[in-house]
Specification:
The protein is α+β, with helices and mostly antiparallel strands. Helices cover 38% and strands 17% of the residues. Strands 1-2-4-3 form a 4-stranded mixed β-sheet, sandwiched between helices. A two-stranded antiparallel ribbon has the order 5-6. A hairpin with a 2-residue loop joins strand 5 and strand 6. The longest helix has 17 residues.
Length: 284
């Protein structure tokens, strides 16, 4: 649609944390678009504009990027978990596409491929740790991010860290994580901060001795029942160690008989219960 007023507003808009301009005359990388939209959302929401030059005086150059904008919009929503809308304009027979990105939820940074992106001026960077902490504090104190006084890296099960590393690589496709030292890996995901080992690190990766010392009420209970009948469980196991150490050996708990009768949904629900039990220190 032709909309001179909207185009003139865009031409006069200040590029930065709320508006980003990309000429993209032919195409544009979808992963980069997701990172930009992620940063816009983390900075309060904004617009990603294709088909207008970013240098002043700005000009409408037209863009053929994302010829199915509704499909792109749905992909961005699925990846970022925030609302994204779009507008298409035609100005002097030149196509301008604008994605309008909503602000992040209260107390939660938006991520794209495992990274919370942020704008520092016009520079797209991973969100600084002090900014992330302020966002988390919007909903109150985050116990999991609190430093556990007295905990050391030796309290961390490095085999569990390796399980986490492999899952992170599998999810992100970032093979460079293979060469990152274990302690640095946990710093990168903020399980370890400059102040020390967080409770999140112990809950996820802690050795049995560390969990018993620092989180004595935390316990993971695994029960298997072959039927709905009351009475003792067919199998019951209790753990006082981090989630990933327990998950590492979880497969050995499932006998062939169990596997034949358990559904994917039930298995995922058991994992959810294990995690919540460790996190809250309660038996479900």
């Amino acid at each position: 649609m032709q909309d001179d007023h909207a185009i003139k507003e865009l031409l006069n808009a200040k590029e930065g944390e709320q508006v980003q301009f990309k000429e993209a005359k032919n195409r544009f990388d979808s992963s980069e678009a997701a990172r930009i939209c992620c940063a816009l959302s983390n900075c309060g929401g904004g617009k990603l504009v294709f088909g207008i030059s970013d240098k002043r005086p700005r000009q409408v150059v037209g863009s053929a990027a994302f010829d199915q904008p509704e499909r792109t919009r749905k992909g961005l929503i699925e990846k970022l978990k925030v609302m994204v809308d779009f507008q298409l304009y035609e100005y002097n027979e030149k196509r301008v596409l604008v994605f309008d990105v909503a602000s992040r939820p209260l107390g939660l940074p938006v991520q794209a491929d495992g990274v919370a992106w942020w704008y520092e001026g016009d520079s797209l960077i991973p969100m600084p740790e002090d900014v992330r902490r302020k966002i988390y504090e919007e909903t109150g104190v985050d116990f999991s991010g609190t430093v556990c006084v007295g905990a050391k890296f030796s309290d961390i099960d490095e085999n569990a860290v390796e399980v986490f590393r492999n899952k992170w690589i599998e999810k992100s496709g970032n093979t460079r994580l293979k060469g990152v030292e274990s302690e640095q890996l946990l710093r990168d995901c903020e399980a370890i901060t400059e102040e020390g080992i967080t409770y999140a690190a112990l809950i996820l990766f802690g050795k049995r001795s560390a969990v018993r010392r620092f989180l004595p009420q935390a316990e993971i209970v695994f029960e298997y029942r072959s039927s709905d009948a009351s009475g003792p469980a067919s199998q019951r196991e209790e753990f006082q160690s981090g989630f990933f150490p327990v998950m590492t050996g979880f497969g050995s708990l499932l006998t062939c008989g169990m596997i034949s009768s358990i559904t994917r949904t039930a298995f995922l629900f058991m994992i959810f219960r294990l995690l919540m039990n460790a996190w809250c220190g309660k038996q479900f």
